[in-house]
Design a protein that fits this description.
Layout (H helix, E strand, L loop, with lengths): L1 E9 L2 E8 L7 E11 L1 H8 L16 E9 L11 E4 L9 H4 L24 E5 L3 E3 L6 H4 L2 H14 L6 E5 L3 H11 L5 E5 L3 H9 L4 E3 L11 E6 L6 H8 E9 L12 H6 L3 E4 L5 H12 L9 E5 L4 H7 L9 E4 L2
Parallel strand pairs: 8-9, 8-11, 9-10, 11-12, 12-13, 14-15
Antiparallel strand pairs: 1-2, 3-4, 3-6, 3-15, 4-5, 5-7
């Protein structure tokens, strides 16, 4: 049987190719892709703005996806065939000190990730190591499950911060990461959960997901020093610094946005005098993935309402152009092979 895939030969130049269906090797599985999300990292790969150390052309993009196992390679449990699933993207070595500590997203063997250095899911099929699978319930909504990769990133941010019931929490940014963070944080029964974003239509959705309030960035002066925990998800030039200003003395701040060179730095005097704990996130460990999948299976996390557009593979260029295009009506964009 044949299988189609988007191949990005170099920035801005792509092809839809058709060839033989991939065959999983030992320890691997072949997954038929049900849905694949497009995020800003994919747009950066298309535009040629991703750091050269984190992409390898030509490449089939697609690191946010869900699907169904169609075939297994040697040494893989045949019972996985037919299972709905998602899978981790990082190809960690499993043997370095960081991997052995469970911090697979910090693998010291070098960066290697599905959709950036390995063929991804903007295709009919994707081949991944069986060890990276996170099987879903038999009736799982695969359209919504395609967003479990960004949900795992949010879980990587939220879990170490240990939100407690009754705390005051702010989420900076109401994009995909921000709205998923609202859902996960709402499950911890915060006393206050405020979303800060200039887009009123996004903050309305945040309230549906459990936010108790919303502000635009120009109306946060009186909120400085108010929050026990601040989760930054926007990656805008000033949001790392402004998020630290929102935290109370002794508070926690976690940065999940991907910042570009030239972003405003965090004031070290403010940081030291206020004894803030600041963390950053890049990708997600196996534990964070397991957390996100548990929340999804338990009904505590429903990414489906974030999807606003769906396209076939043939319309990849149109789909990727929407991402980061500035249209306030654009939420999550999916490819549906």
């Amino acid at each position: 049987m044949s299988s189609r895939a988007i191949v990005l030969d170099r920035p801005g130049v792509h092809r839809l190719v058709s060839g033989a269906e991939p065959v999983p090797g030992p320890g691997e599985v072949l997954v038929r892709v049900a849905a694949a999300g497009i995020c800003m990292s994919d747009r950066e790969v298309y535009d040629g703005r991703r750091d050269a150390a984190y992409v390898r052309y030509p490449v089939t993009p697609g690191h946010e996806w869900s699907g169904t196992v169609e075939a297994v390679g040697a040494g893989v449990d045949p019972a996985l065939t037919g299972r709905r699933t998602v899978a981790e993207g990082f190809r960690a070595c499993g043997s370095c000190a960081r991997c052995r500590a469970g911090e697979t997203s910090l693998c010291t063997a070098g960066y290697d990730e599905t959709g950036f250095t390995r063929p991804g899911a903007f295709a009919d099929h994707v081949v991944v190591p069986a060890a990276l699978l996170h099987p879903l319930a038999d009736d799982a909504d695969l359209r919504a499950a395609a967003l479990l990769e960004p949900a795992a990133v949010v879980a990587a941010a939220v879990r170490p911060c240990r939100p407690e019931p009754g705390e005051r929490i702010a989420v900076v940014g109401a994009g995909t990461l921000g709205l998923l963070a609202v859902q996960l944080l709402a499950a911890h029964s915060p006393g206050e959960l405020t979303v800060i974003d200039p887009r009123t239509e996004r903050t309305r959705l945040a309230r549906l997901f459990g936010a108790t309030g919303a502000r635009t960035p120009d109306r946060t002066e009186e909120l400085r020093g108010r929050y026990d925990l601040v989760v930054e998800t926007a990656g805008a030039p000033a949001t790392a610094a402004s998020s630290c200003l929102l935290a109370r003395r002794g508070g926690r701040v976690v940065l999940t946005g991907l910042f570009a060179p030239g972003a405003t730095g965090i004031d070290p005097v403010h940081l030291s005098l206020n004894q803030l704990t600041v963390r950053s996130v890049f990708g997600a460990s196996s534990a964070a993935w397991a957390h996100a999948v548990r929340a999804f299976n338990a009904g505590l996390l429903d990414p489906g309402p974030l999807v606003t557009h769906e396209f076939p593979l043939e319309r990849y260029a149109e789909a990727v152009a929407l991402v980061g295009g500035g249209d306030p009506g654009t939420g999550k964009v999916l490819l549906r092979p």
